[in-house]
Design brief:
About 55% of the residues lie in helices and about 20% in strands. The chain contains 5 helices and 5 strands; from the N terminus they run βββαβαβααα. The protein has a 5-stranded mixed beta sheet with strand order 3-2-1-4-5.
């Protein structure tokens, strides 16, 4: 399965792409999409840059599923509002491309990648490097996006295992009710 992770941000949105094959994860690509008000761009134009950038990433790497970080509430309401709008632009690009989108919090990402929810950015970056066997530490936004991919890969494997057990239990229960006892 090819997974695209998006760490939304108005100035810098990170993206990461991995392939999974059972428990194995393979790095495909990562990077950032940057916008700046210094370029004279107003908010709508900056959101279009994000939308177009994500659309280009989707077209280039052809993911099967996307993952986006859930925005936290910041102490600065204006910053939270801008981040929410950036996230909305990112989600819109993903959905417009026809991708199913999963969402995880930063806490869930840190627990999945580093083993605890209080992991620092450098710890997340290092664990992403190790888990994907990268030659160097990815940038913080790309690392978060790759971490979201890793989180989704782990959750997907767990959900698949639970579904297999459920199907097995259902067959066993049906066999038992049908008169075949083991």
């Amino acid at each position: 399965m090819r997974i695209l992770g998006i760490d939304p941000g108005l100035q810098c949105a990170g993206f990461g792409v991995i392939d999974t094959d059972g428990p194995r994860m393979h790095y495909v690509a990562s990077g950032t999409i940057r916008t700046s008000p210094r370029d004279g761009a107003l908010l709508p134009q900056r959101l279009k840059v994000l939308f177009d950038g994500i659309t280009e990433v989707v077209a280039r790497y052809q993911p099967e599923v996307a993952v986006c970080e859930i925005v936290f509430v910041n102490v600065n309401p204006q910053a939270t509002l801008l981040l929410g709008q950036a996230r909305g632009g990112c989600l819109t690009a993903l959905v417009a491309a026809g991708l199913p989108v999963a969402e995880y919090t930063a806490l869930q990402l840190k627990k999945a990648v580093a083993g605890h929810g209080r992991a620092s950015k450098p710890q997340v970056q290092e664990m992403v490097r190790r888990l994907l066997q990268l030659p160097g530490v990815p940038g913080k936004d790309a690392a978060d996006a790759l971490g979201l991919c890793i989180t989704h890969a782990q959750v997907s494997r767990t959900v698949s295992a639970i579904e297999r057990v459920g199907r097995l239990q259902a067959r066993t229960h049906a066999a038992y009710k049908g008169g075949r006892h083991y």
